[in-house]
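Quiz preparation item.
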């Protein structure tokens, strides 16, 4: 068991990248997630780095696309697509379980992971629902 000593959640670092008026300096958080959350094929929810978190990896794909790194986004989405369960939802993680702040995520079908994958694959920014495609932000 890996204990979580301090919350270091991936998602809040990624969501900030999608804000329409986010300062360019905030992109430094993408380097930080690479150093603190990157795992084989994607990103872990926390800095415990005990396995890929499908939901967060889909969020990362959208964030990387939003800042203009199409190749990285495509690679991440391809990995996310491998997590399809027989029922069609994506698994929350390929691992038996991973640590999340104050809980665990399991290798079970996940609506949240599936929803973020659809958002990322559709290239939509949830902060700009009327915007249409979330192709590179002009900042």
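Solution:
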């Amino acid at each position: 068991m890996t204990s979580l000593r301090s919350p270091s959640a991936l998602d809040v670092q990624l969501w900030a990248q999608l804000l329409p008026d986010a300062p360019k300096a905030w992109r430094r958080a993408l380097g930080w997630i690479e150093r603190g959350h990157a795992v084989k094929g994607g990103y872990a929810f926390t800095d415990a780095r005990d396995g890929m978190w499908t939901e967060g990896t889909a969020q990362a794909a959208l964030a990387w696309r939003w800042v203009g790194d199409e190749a990285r986004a495509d690679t991440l989405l391809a990995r996310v697509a491998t997590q399809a369960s027989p029922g069609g939802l994506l698994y929350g993680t390929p691992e038996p379980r991973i640590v999340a702040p104050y809980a665990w995520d399991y290798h079970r079908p996940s609506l949240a992971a599936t929803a973020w994958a659809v958002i990322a694959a559709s290239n939509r920014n949830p902060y700009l629902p009327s915007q249409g495609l979330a192709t590179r932000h002009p900042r």
